[in-house]
Each structure stands twice: as C-alpha cells, then as structure tokens.
C-alpha cells in the first residue's frame, strides 16, 4: 500500500532524538509513515534524508536525529532550529530518549522508568547545570530555561490522571515492540543499584562488582511503566560519578535524571523532555538497558500525544473543496529548491529604514532589485522565515510565491501566483472559506464548480481581502521578471490600485 504524501505545513510536532536507538523506537511507534513530498522535491532537498515523517494519533510528526557523534546542547539546538526552518508550521517539540536516573529516598527511580520535565520550585523543568561562572570556592549558575508549553503540561496532568485510574494505559503501545527482542525487558538484564561511592570494578558489565555494595530495594509490583515528573539536569558532559551525581542533585534542589540535550532546546524550541532511565549516572553504566529505556520513553510520548488536542480543526467540506481546487503539485517547488539561507543572512535588510517603514505600512511596496544570481531569491526566502517567526499582537497573514521561468505553466503565470496566494490565505484563516462562499455570488462558486480562471481568482482575492480587513496581509513575490510580463503588471496594478479595507503589503524581487 502506497504511503501518504502530505505538505510541509501539515506537520505540527517536532520529535528530536539524540541516538539511533532512540530514533528507531520513535519510528516504531508511528501509526503511519509518510512519503517525503514528491519525488522531484526529494531529489533536490537534502531534508528528505534526515527526517522521518509520519502520524501519531491525530498528529503529523517530524522525527529528527542528531548527526552521528555530535551530541550535546549545541547540536540539539542546531537541529531544532533546522526543523523549524524546514517545517514552519511546527507548534511544539518533544525531546525523547534515554537518561541517567538519580535515585533517592524521595524518588524510587528504577531502570526503565520514565522522567518528564515539569516545572518545580525555581526551575522550569530543565536546568543546565554546567553553565555559569566559576568564583573562588563556588560555581554560580546563570541563565534560566523556559518551561514546556502549556498544552504539553496540561497533557502531562491529563495522562497522570488516567494513570491513577488504570496502570495499563501504556500496555498496548509496549506490545507493538514484541517482534523486536532487543527492546524487551528480558534483554536488558538485572537492575543493579550500587552505593554512590562504590566504583565500577571493570569490564563490560557488573558481574565482577561486589554484591556487598548493592542497595537492597523492595521488589516493585507490576511490570508497567512508572513515570516521574520534575527537574531534569542537562549539560555537555556525560555524568558517570555517583558521588558527583548526588552532590549536584542536592545543590539543584533535587533532580530526577541527567542528560545532554534538553538545555539546548528549551529557549529555542517550545518542547517537553521525556527520558527513559537506562543507568544511574554512575560508573556502572552499560548499554544493555538503552533499547528498553528508549522504548519506554517513546511509548510515554505516544500516550502523551493521544491526549493533546488536535492542533488543527477538521476541515469543512467547503474548505476541503476550495483548498483542493487551488492547490497544485509544484506550488512550493521553487521555494524549496532555493538554497537555505545561512545564519545572519538578511539581517542588514531587516534593519533598514525602508524595510521598517514597509513593515509598518508606511509604504505598500518594497522592491528588491539586483543582477541575476545576486541572491535576491535567497533573501526573499530569509524574509519569509523572519516574518513567520515574528511574535506580533496581531500576526499578519503571510503568503508567498516564487516564480520559476523554467517551470510548469502555473509556476510562471499570474494564475499560479493567485492560486498559491489564495491557498495560503485560506489555510491561515480557517473561517475565511465559509465566509467567502457565503459572500460570493459568482458563477464559478455557485454554478459550475471551481475551475479558477484569472478573472475569477482576482475576484476571489478581492473578496477575501475585504473579509479579513481586521488582519494585515503581507505578500512576498519572487522572480516577477520570470513570469508573463503583461500578467505580472496587471496583477501588481490590480493589488495596488483597488481600495481594499485591508491593503496587502507586497515585497517583490
């Protein structure tokens, strides 16, 4: 059976893993795996090889792993930024994988348990323990990391409530790993916790370590996943010292586990950290528990998404018909193949007086001119990214079209431009389609269906502009010189000369 193909804007959840075993567990719990857009895009876009796309419950998810051998907060931050650039509709993220537990009298943490970052006391759920200033006889930690987004914390509470009523809420997800013996509890081996000041004797396992230093713990009843919620300590080094583990935990007010990536995300990528415990952050580390711990973390993440409300309402029949009639396969092709802007690209433009005045509405048009190959399209792509991440009180509708003179007829025509612009306007204003259908008495809506000739598209654009007069609209049009000259001039004149209640601001190149 062929896999479904969705669009970039359909993906709302970013799921990041540091290790291949964590990514494998995440891929296994997908309810559906998607193909990567169309074949032409896959040939030209490197992201086809670094993401796994799919669905978990009602949510379309992007799975991403860190580059091999590049662990730590900086690598995690770079991956999060890249996901948000490649999938601008991502609304929140999950950092899912393994971690080293911190057992204590207050928290009976065992191997295979799950730790979830949750605000506690002065911390937002994650603290970077190795960031600060070294002073005489002390280390002063600096900076504050954001809390997870409210929608995820609400889901954490909802899932906790369900656990009180049933300890089997994870069972059906765990059963999906039965055909993979490496992820089984039996493969992981014994759960041994040694006194914090007793160091590992040597060898790949603890068979040579003295049982005299084992901490005796009561047998835990039941085989379900136990979840702990609280502070996660994150840093750029592996914690494998029991004494230092306990000291740091005490200094930080009590942490549940140590890991190496979450601190790089919290202020850049609204997310929740979920860690399966694979060791006790001491010298007795081994990798036998990693697959099982990666599985329990992935299972919790899947259960969590099942209680997160759908991030987008189900489209109405009218919305489906209108959007489907406007969309065409190559609508984003030119935008996607344009080279990804380097960090800092376009900053000079955003600081100019002309750009600031255009953004405020002082001027309708901002025209960027330059020689062929000078980087105008890259600059337009960077401008689109900048506008999409702005946090305005009244966020504008931002739509774009990148002409392609060597592309299909729709990629280099006014008809294609207006179909793409209207599609994006309707997609960002979910109630607008119904209002548009009611307001329009045109034959193309009420009679013969949606065939979309240029005149009809212009009429639809005018109607939609009047209907959303309360919300500013920004249009980015790239490569106008590659389109039909007469059509392009007519469209620019049309959009600039009509007395729309909400006049669109247009940037062209």
TrEMBL record:
The record places domain NACHT at 364-509
SUPFAM superfamilies in UniProt: P-loop containing nucleoside triphosphate hydrolases (SSF52540), Purine and uridine phosphorylases (SSF53167)
Q: Which Gene3D superfamilies match?
A: Nucleoside phosphorylase domain, P-loop containing nucleotide triphosphate hydrolases
Which Pfam family, any one, appears in the UniProt record?
PNP_UDP_1
Record-given protein name: NACHT domain-containing protein
Q: Which domain of life is it from?
A: Eukaryota
List, in alphabetical order, the GO biological process terms annotated in this UniProt record.
Answer: nucleoside metabolic process
Signal sequence extent: none
Q: Which UniProt keywords apply?
A: Repeat
What are this entry's molecular-function GO terms?
A: catalytic activity
